[in-house]
Amino acid sequence: MDFAIRGITYWITRDDVLRATQDSPPLPVGGRHNHFVTVHGKEYPVKQVIRLVIGRPRTGFHTRHALRILSRLQFPMSRRTSN
What we know:
The chain is α+β, with helices and mostly antiparallel strands. The protein has helices spanning about 15-20, 45-55, 65-70, and strands at about 1-5, 10, 35-40, 40-45, 75-80.
């Protein structure tokens, strides 16, 4: 699928996500991370996954971009709510 972030067009596939996360452990749960995607049976912060795939820093795009992209690639997502 193709998408644009800040005027740059990217093309990624579900397999790109699987490869990019294969040897990268998820960042610790908690802190500022509220949105997660399940890849390889592990929960990753959504922005971590997109950063691994496209190589941009997490500050270079919004969570909504990551959510939209991963949803279109049909990865299961969840959201943590603070108590």
